[in-house]
Amino acid sequence: MNPHHDDAVDSLEFGHPVAATVLGVVNPPPDAAAATRLPWRGLLLLRASAVLLPLGALVAISFSTMATVEQAARGRVERVAEMLHEHALRAFDAQELTIAAIVHHMRGLAWQDVPADVGVYGFLRALDAVNLNSGGLALVAPGGLMVMSSAQPFGAPPRDVAHRDYVAAQRAGSPIPETVFIGQVVRASDRGMPLFPVVRARPRADGLSDGGTILATLWPGNFQTFYRSILESPEDQVTLFRLDGAVLAAVPEPAEPVGAALPRSAGGMLRALRRGPLEVLQGPSPFDGVPRMTAIRRLARHDVGIAYGLSQQALFRDWRRRMLGPLTGATLSMVVLLAAIWQAERSMRSRSLAEARARGAERQATLGLLAGGLAHDFGNITQSVTAAARLLQRHAEDAARVRQVADLLQSHATRATALSRRLLDTTRRSDPLALESAGAVDITTSLRELTGLLDATLGAGTRVRCDVPPGLRSAPGLDRAELETALINLAANARDAMPQGGEVWITAQRFQVPPRPAGAPSLTPGSYLRITVRDSGQGMSAEALARLGEPFFTTKPPGRGTGLGLAMVAAFLRRADGALLADSRPGQGTAVHMLLPAG
């Protein structure tokens, strides 16, 4: 594909210190004991890197995850506070409509005639019955006598409620406010249950207050039942309160709801809420001092606020749940890397002992074979895991990216094993391997996901772009791991063909193969997928293009390539009933095409 590199599996940005050490041994020591002495400083550095690199990525991910958890929690808290605001507003609006209906029904009726009017009593009872949140309806005449109540029998004696705050707020001859008055929580005299009033003055003909009031009440318990149903955790808090600090309903419930009030420390919050909207608060709650993320809303047209506080413990539990994936990925990375290092040490010792016993030219040939085998064995095992660990560190702030890379760790290890088998198949010219998967591959998804991985790992100067239409699928029987390994080979070759950097394009489209096509006469006619990896690099000569896919052929300098990368791609395509084609001219880049049967 290019004049510098055609084996991309061992060049995905990261080197292999252990393999390089073995390759550097030109004259082995004459005794077996000396041959088994390993470069302990390099191995110690490798072991430390295998632990510290995943741990460092895990720490970065933990901070990023907590920021993500807090951002998501902030959005949830604001949405719940808005829902609570609408719930309370609907309850108050319903009571306002009820009061307006009572005012209209009593038009022209004198207060002294109200206690004996059975029609008014029946109307109150009917309205009370249809309002599920209502704690009762009552009429308070000028002077503070409650002359009628839907909760009392008809004709019950009047009760003096002149001491209540809602009576004092409705003075005869004063203008009637546009909004209802919300009174403090009191205990119902008939049932002993706490309730709070929603009150409006009865208007005179001139629109001013006649001194009497129309009273509707709400049960705090109904609000608290709803509040418990929307809590994320038992430690959360919901408070409905007046802007003077009186608590109307709360979860957890106050020990004594009558006279319950916010602590003095909430005074600053109440003053700020009167001035305008508040941002979400994080830290000690102004309501009880417990660490929470709290959203506070003021009810439109009312001197009432509603607050929802999400417990910090809930945030920590969410963070801990989200960290299970990165923690598993980091642990798996450490285990795989340490196992690979252990395997490398073991392989180095065995190969060094064999090398010490070799003689003359046979000894040098054996060394080359062992070094090449080790380079591929160890490189194929650690390649994808090392790249994924680097991605965990680079993209620690992207939680979704981290989870994607963690999920790919196991598939990368499986791909390395399959790659070793395919390497043996290529070098030994054995029978074709059986495909691991019998299902069709979603080519569109596979290429787009792989493009993201390659773009992050091929190096800062190389950008990988993808142009793939939706809905492309292969014929059944294609192994996705083999396909992606082949693409990694081609993309890395394209990268090395552009030493000054550039763009690598991966494209795919349907392609109809006619009978006995030029360049691939053995292909069966039919529908194929043409997957192309294109670069703008140095290109290939006609002589190099003619030997494309030939095992052990490479145009790279000695030590830079083995000549097996494109050979493995060609072997994969032969097993998949496809073909490998290429277009290239010196100085004009290279386009390598993989033809695969389409589904």
What features would you highlight for this structure?
disordered N terminus, 599 residues, 19% strand
What general outline do the C-alpha atoms trace? Answer: elongated
Strand content: 15-25%
Percentage of residues assigned to helices: 40-55%
The total of helices stands at: 15
Largest sheet entry: 7 strands, antiparallel
Low-confidence stretches: 1-36, 358-378, 425-438
Q: How far apart, in Å, are the first and last alpha carbons?
A: 28 Å
Q: What structural class do the secondary elements suggest? A: alpha+beta
Rounded mean pLDDT score: 79
Q: Say how many strands there are.
A: 17
Oligomer: single chain
Question: Radius of gyration in whole Å, from Cα?
Answer: 39 Å
Chain-wise SSE layout:
Blueprint: H1 17-23, H2 32-35, H3 40-105, H4 118-130, E1 134-141, E2 145-149, E3 159-160, H5 165-168, E4 181-182, E5 186-187, E6 194-203, E7 209-218, H6 220-230, E8 237-242, E9 247-251, H7 267-275, E10 281-284, E11 291-298, E12 304-311, H8 312-322, H9 324-357, H10 360-394, H11 399-428, H12 443-457, E13 462-467, H13 480-496, E14 502-513, E15 526-534, H14 542-546, H15 565-575, E16 579-584, E17 590-597
Parallel strand pairs: 13-14
Antiparallel strand pairs: 1-2, 1-7, 2-3, 4-6, 5-6, 6-7, 8-9, 8-12, 10-11, 11-12, 14-15, 15-17, 16-17
Helix pairs in contact: 1-10, 3-8, 3-9, 3-10, 9-10, 9-11, 10-11, 11-15, 12-13, 13-15
Summarize the structure.
It is built from 15 helices and 17 strands. By secondary structure, the chain is an alpha+beta fold. The protein is elongated.
